[in-house]
């Protein structure tokens, strides 16, 4: 359906649709030149392949098309007339956050911009404000040459989600139908987007090309698949958290999510971000079984594992029932 939609649009309309998904003009033009797409899988594969060739300026251009985390709807409509509904949906959890969390996000955004020189990017869909704050705080200490590829991978997740929405585009804004030029970033008026031109931003110590992204798999290096052996079905809507033990022995939250209709969650970590160390995956089986009105002896399952090589993929499946569980390293 996505491929058919993109293939049948005229050039100008297709360009507009793709800009809604990713604001990097080189990415948009390369996607246009890749038409027609054979199927939806070809759309996503092409999007990932092209994104992996983007350089620093392209990535920052894509970032500039996003509002800050926690933008109010009036601000979204004014600055992002073509995507304000999608941005509002993606950040819907933040609108319900308490004042202390919002203040912490604002302060974290300020520190992030000061350290890296560009907007904090996180795939906000399905995440609470507290989770996004935890991700921000976890990523703040990263070296610049590590953080930019992580942020670029978050952009790739956002692009994929928005591509899936294309057959049902947002309702046009009748108050402001002007569209920002695809070749220039939006004017920056909020505190977590840099006011400096991209040429003035601090450069990563490595080559301008983002080699941590180019040529690597776009899937998370750690994945899981949960099966409910009591029902003989995938364990859907099972909350999961991924932690890593730091040098002091404390567990730091890296990511969280909920299993999909196939019992899987495949975007826990950004590609290229894996580090050696001890990790722990926490499965909230109590919430899962409570939603099914099923008593369980195990309200939480903790799986602790060690990673020694960062160039491998780690699949940590879980087989659960109300009175037992098992795991193994999958492929």
What can you tell me about this protein's structure?
The protein has 331 residues and is α+β, with helices and mostly antiparallel strands. The chain has two domains: 199 residues, Orthogonal Bundle (UraD-like), CATH 1.10.3330; 106 residues, Immunoglobulin-like, CATH 2.60.40.180. The chain has eleven helices and ten strands. Strands 1, 2, 5, 8, 9 and 10 form a six-stranded mixed beta sheet that branches. Helix 2 packs across helix 3 and helix 4 packs antiparallel against helix 10. It is globular.
In short:
By secondary structure, this protein is of the alpha+beta class. It contains 11 helices and 10 strands. 36% of the residues lie in helices and 15% in strands.
Using brief descriptors, characterize the structure shown.
alpha+beta, UraD-like, Immunoglobulin-like, six-stranded mixed beta sheet, four-stranded antiparallel beta sheet, globular
Distance between the termini: 30 Å
CATH superfamily of the largest domain: Oxo-4-hydroxy-4-carboxy-5-ureidoimidazoline decarboxylase
For this structure, what is the CATH class of the largest domain?
Answer: Mainly Alpha
Count every helix, treating DSSP H or I runs of 4 or more residues as helices: 11
Number of strands: 10
Query: From the alpha-carbon coordinates, what is the Rg to the nearest angstrom?
Result: 20 Å
Which regions are unreliable across 5 or more consecutive residues at pLDDT < 50?
Answer: 70-93, 169-217
Order of helices and strands: HHHHHHHHHHEEEEEEHEEEE
Class by alpha and beta content: alpha+beta
Q: Beta-strand percentage?
A: 15-25%
Round the mean pLDDT to the nearest integer and report it. Answer: 77
Sum up the overall morphology in one term.
Answer: globular
The major pleated sheet works out as: 6 strands, mixed
According to CATH, what is the topology of the largest domain? UraD-like
- Percentage of residues assigned to helices: 25-40%
Tell me the count of domains. 2
If classified by CATH, what would the architecture of the largest domain be?
A: Orthogonal Bundle
